[in-house]
Amino acid sequence: MAAEVEETLKRIQGHRGVTGTIVVNSEGIPIKTTLDNSTTVQYASLIHSLTAKARSTVRDIDPSNDLKFLRIRSRKNEIMCAPDKEFLLIVIQQDEQS
Amino acid sequence: MSDAEIKEVSSDGHKEETEKNGDENSADSKEAAQTEEKEKDSSQPEMNANTNAEEESLDVKKADKKTSKIKSKPGKKESKVLKEDINEPVGEPLEEANTEVLPENVFPLFMTSKTQEIYNCKCDEDVTEENPFKFIPKSDILEDMRLRAAVCDFHPFKQQILDYPGEDVLIVYDYEFKHGQNFIVALTEEAKELLLKAPEGEEGEAEEEGEEEEEDDTVYMYIPPEPKDWVSLGSEKEIEESIVKETRRKLKVSVKRIRREFGAPVQFSDRNVGDVKDGAVDCTSYDDHNFDIKRIELDKAVQAISEQVTEGTQTDWKYPRNANTQTYPREYTEDEQAALVATKECSDFVHEVAFDFHQALQQNEIMNVFYVDWVHLGDGDDAFGSKADNHLKEYQSFTDLQFSKDKMITCIQWHPTIKGVVATSVAEKLSFDQRIDNAAKVIMTPSLILIWSFADPIHPQLILEAPDDIFSFAFNPTDPNHIVGGCLNGQIVMWDIAAHADRLKQQRGSNRNKKRTVLPGFEDPNALKTPIVRYCAVSSIEHSHKAPVTDIQWLPDHMQINKMGVPQENASLQCTQLLSCATDHCVMLWDTKASKIHATAMYDEKKKSQQPSGVPDTFKHLDLTWKPLLRVTLSKSEPGGDHAPTKFSIQERQGDRSALTSGTENREADVTQTMQGGFHKPSSGKERTLQGVKTYVYVGTEDGEIVYADWMPQKDQDTGKIQTPKPAYYHVTHDGPVVSMQRSPFFKDVLLSVGGWTLALWKEGVSSGPILESSACNVKLSCAAWSPTRPGVFFVAKVDGSVDVWDLLDKTHEPALTQSVSPTAIMQIYPFQVTQKQQLIAVGDIAGTLHILEIPWSLRQATPNETTSVANYIEREVKRRAFVVERWNFREKEKREIEAEVKKKAGGMAAAMAPPTEEEKELRLRQEYEAYLNEEHTFLRELGIVQDEEIPLPAA
Q1: What confidence tens digit (pLDDT) does each residue in B155-196 have?
Q2: DSSP state for residue B767 in the 8-state scheme
Q3: Is residue B455 a contact partner of residue B449, using CB atoms and an 8 Å limit?
Q4: Do residues B104 and B86 touch, judged by C-beta distance below 8 A?
């Protein structure tokens, strides 16, 4: 199991410009990361709360709906997050132009 | 005595009282008696003189004393004594302040205890505070007065009592001695009535008193203490503890003395001091050192209050943080993480979301979906081709009727530091032969460099005088007051304009206004005249160039070249060396610093020769003795003359310090040295060699060749002489003399060469030829210059008076813009970024006019990524060049192969009929002749001149 996860994450990491991949559990605690500890913790905590907020927004609008994917485009990079019941996957992709 | 008297008194009246005295207070009486005895002793003489009454008063005194003694004693005793005390008349009644104002005919009265007994008005018994009134029958008083006469207390009021109408006289007990005596007496009926209202009246008085006392705010009421049962609170234990008890047996001391010695007389006898040794001991005083204690003052402060302590506490200010980051993050250990990752949920989740991520990531990779086209929309519009303002605008033009008219401008230089100052050199428009013909005239006209300022378009700010026409000159980049020029005759000339630097710096118009402030009549006649600066040094004519100096440049300040051509670090960061070239086949390196020998020689010379007045001696040491440090002779690789350089370019440029970055040791030491040494300091010779500097120079020649040569001399293989090596390569590219050799300000390995009717772009390192070569222009090109701000733009001047603007990114086969600037041929152009928003190009024409044109925004504002684009273009061209070379080689090879094959074939035939015999020759000739006849016949027949039948073939 773990090896498969590893494999999938490695494939994601293999894309151009990807600087980090973090798997966070439902409590916002990182369980797998390719970044250094402090960055990971920061991303995990902040993105987790943001994702929770985004998810609640989507579900408040339509209770039968759910957040599937969240992309945050910033000047320097793009943060993509996919929330689930149990986990949250965060991928950070550097902007090619910058 | 008192005691006795008291007893006496008691015996006289009340037995009760006496008994009391005797029973209860015997001890007290005794004590009092003792004191009185003492008193009596002291006041004996006085006593004797007293009368009976006085004795009584003395008695009272004593009693008083007694009272004062007893007062401290509590309980009944005191009250008893007080009673006695009150009974006694007071000795000094007048001493008491008569505070109360008595009604008329009411008088204070003192009644002795005896009198009180007589009238039955004993104090506190018959009369009390509560009931102070007592009526005494008038007859009793009269009786008393009769019996006791003057002793009677009523004696002072005898007459009034006698006059008293009523039977009873009212006396009132004055308990508090308000009126000085123990009683008051009313001696008229009215007064009696007044006092009898008394209770009220007295009350009223009392109230008055009360009121008065209320002002004092307190009314004291005596409440006699009541005895209570003793309650133990534990004090008896303390008392018990504090009682000294015998714990051991008492010591017995017995002192004995012989009985007979008691009271026995003592006998003393005389003795001489000298009889016995130590008969007398002299006890002189002396300082006992044992007690020699120094007294030291000690200041000590003691304060009986608790010490004060001031303390403060403040919580540390912490940078405000997001709530999420305030807490310590929870983390899993590696094992826990691994366990979680290994769960199926995690695996499923990752697989599930992976697709979305791949999609998103790929999408980003394909294109930037958030690219805002609007932001970049304007960029292209302002570029070339649009109708936007993109032509050169005339800004100013300079011409001097006296000096520059009808002369050609040979060189233009902007002042490196002062904005708006531009210098031009002018020369006669004469060919060599014409020059010889008009030698007399030419020699008489001065050769000048004119320095113009935008402040004055008519008069040059400064004129530099040269020995001969100047064809090139340059400002020293580090000290712009030093100008070097190359003459027509091959000499190098130096000027120092430091004295006139202020003149150049003056702002527009201020020059002339300033002159007006001078007093009339004292104007400097030369004030309005342009100062002419004479050159201060000229190179030795025999060591100079043998041809007009066509190009001269200062070496950048970070490097210097030694005699061996080795580039070294120039720690002083002052430009002291320069390169010049002329068509006499060589490039020369000059050093403005004095060598050691020259320095001393100069010192001697200085005394002898006097500089013409007004000429600074900055370069005196060089004058007429200046020799080149290094001579680079450009000989051709193959025999047949040398290259005649007209322009050159080296890779290092002013301001680019990258060559210095490799190692900076012993740099600082050198800096300090040179700071002291200044300009004349000879090179110390231990400067660091700059490894990164390319010692190759690009040279454009008179024949249109571009030569790439190493200036560093090498030992020649054959002769063993140290001389400049043969050029690395050269290309005959231009169809006329090279007039410009310019390095791009953005790429230090890219050069632009212009000569004849063509221009070419070169990349250093690409030896096979130019990376871009223009087709021939229809007019001759005269000069070229790169744009200082746009990497892809350069300007080319033409002899028809127009300027071409090339934009490599726009088109490379023709100029992007052509603009006519001058009616005459343009000789020189020089663009210059004056300010951030202004870029000017100086254009000098053959008529001696200097046009200053403003370069439009589109030609000076680099487009985004222009540098990269141009770099890419150059890279592409280099690749193309490489490909071309490859094809050349291929073609060459192919050609050679074909030739070889042909040769082989021909060779084979030739081998078969190797020696052609006479017959064969004849046969061949015949065949050729026949072929000719056939051809002729065919030709004639086509023309219809001959018929086939009519003209038979000649017999074979």
Answers
A1: 777 777 777 777 777 777 777 777 777 777 777 777 777 777
A2: T
A3: no
A4: no
Residue B886 C-alpha from the chain's centroid? 62
Q: CB under 8 Å to B896, separation ≥6 — which residues?
A: none
Which residues make Cβ contacts (< 8 Å) with residue A20, sequence separation at least 6? Answer: A33, A34, A35, A39, A40, A43, A90, A91, A92
| Contact state of B330 with A29 under an 8 Å Cβ cutoff | yes
Which helix (H) or strand (E) segment holds residue B62: the answer is: helix B52-70
Task: For residue B151, give Cα distances in angstroms to B112, B169, B280, B640.
Answer: 10, 19, 78, 180
Q: Please check whether residue B899 is in contact with residue B783, taking contact to mean a CB–CB distance below 8 angstroms.
A: no
Spans in chain A with pLDDT lower than 70: 1, 96-98
Q: How far is B397 from chain A (nearest CA, A)?
A: 46
Of B45, B44, B2, nearest in space to B21 by CA: B2
Buried b (16+ CB within 10 A) or exposed e, B567-582: bbbbbbebbbbbbbbb
Residues of B with CB under 8 A from a CB of A: 322, 324-325, 329-332, 336-338, 340-347, 349-354, 356-358, 360-362, 364-365, 368, 370
pLDDT, tens digit, for every residue of B39-94?
Answer: 444 444 444 444 444 444 444 444 444 444 444 444 444 444 444 444 444 444 44
Burial status of residue B274 (CB atoms within 10 A of its CB: 0-12, 13-18, 19 or more): exposed
Residue type for position B782:
S
* Phi-psi label, residue B858: left if phi above 0, alpha if psi -120 to 50, beta otherwise: alpha
What is the three-state SS of chain A?
CHHHHHHHHHHHHCCCCEEEEEEEECCCCEEEECCCHHHHHHHHHHHHHHHHHHHHHHHHHCCCCCCCCEEEECCCEEEEEEECCCEEEEEEEECCCC
Of B352, B354, B365, the CB nearest to A12: B354
Of B570, B603, B602, nearest to B683 by C-alpha is B570
Whether the ipTM is more than 0.85: the answer is yes
Nearby residues of B61 by Cβ (< 8 Å), 6 or more positions away: B91
Question: Between chains, do A17 and B365 touch, taking CB under 8 Å as contact?
Answer: yes
User: Between chains, do B354 and A84 touch, taking CB under 8 Å as contact?
Assistant: no
Tell the burial category of B616 from Cβ atoms under 10 Å away from its Cβ (0-12, 13-18, 19+).
middle
